Structure of Integral membrane protein:
Amino acid sequence: MITAAALAALAVACALGAWRFTTARWTSRSPRVAILLWQSLGVTWGLATTGAMLAYAVQPYEVGVLPGLLAFAQGMAPGEPWDLAHLLAMVAGITCLTVLVVVLLTAGVQALRARRRHRALLALISHDNPVLPGVRVLDHPSAAAYCVPGLRSQVVVSEGALKLLSEDELTAVLAHEAAHVRERHDLVLLPFAALRRALPWSKVVSDAQSQVELLVEMAADDRARRYCSPRRLATALLRFGTAGAMPTPQGMISLHAHHVMARVDRLIKPDPDLAPGLRYMLLACSVTLVTSASLLWVYQL
């Protein structure tokens, strides 16, 4: 019972933490740390929510969640007789865990299929450019720049973008998209998109997804700043924002117009980085959250 209560308290703490985190102002100063904290909150909430129900369900076995589930699957008799409350908790816990896993897998499969279809389409409507090695040029008059993530990742720009941007601005945009590919931001975004599908009514989940999308763009901006002028990237963002850029294909990551001014202001007038002590404290908090939930699945209190 203590394990179930601890997991329930951890789930509530993560939900409250996520609610408060949506209004945090320090995240733009260290987007990678903020992304890690968001990930740890999401993983811990999922483990704690389902774990609380399952911990109560396997209480008659007087062991942890995982050993109890294993004993249940093997048909072992518990030390105490089952009652309706424990059986209902088992059904609810397994159902919630299954829904979360299935939604995540479904989102992943749909993204893979969309990228496979888009790669086939790119082979027909795009071409290589000797001036831009490794970049596919899309035969479209509207401005577009995005990446197709995966094992065979591609960076794509449109003819409209080539005409819209100067050489330095194009370099900044390509560096931004290459950062998305290198840091596999598609995998960062996938769980939040899946959770949004599982809980479409939750404003906290919606805000969390929006926050992570912005943080991913800021992280890519930071990587791009190593190879180009921040002002060039800022002017490229403004050009895309005012030129009516074409929508990004499903499953891709693009330099889109959302939160343009927040990113432009950050590039032109950057805030100081987080103090090392605060950064390490946030990283330790992230690790502690996930570790605590994982240990409570294995051991009984």
